[in-house]
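User: I'm putting together notes for a lab meeting next week and I want to include a structural view of one of the chains we've been expressing. I don't have a solved structure, so I'd like a prediction I can at least talk through. The sequence is below, exactly as it appears in our construct file.
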Amino acid sequence: MPGKLGLPEILLILAVALLIFGPSKLASLGKGLGEGIKNFKSAVKEGEEGEEKKP
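Assistant: Thanks for the context. Below is the predicted structure for the 55-residue chain, given as structure tokens.
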């Protein structure tokens, strides 16, 4: 089915990314992405709590 990524496709994409960026750069990119997602989730949670407190 078009548009679906299986395990072989994901592994191929990761291998190409590893060749392009290198192991150290790829690790720092992953860390930055994780921190960004964490900050986004906390901001959404704070926004929802702020809406609940408003009358």
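A couple of points you could mention at the meeting. The chain has a mean pLDDT of 85. Residues 23-53 form the longest helix (31 residues).

User: Perfect, that's what I needed.
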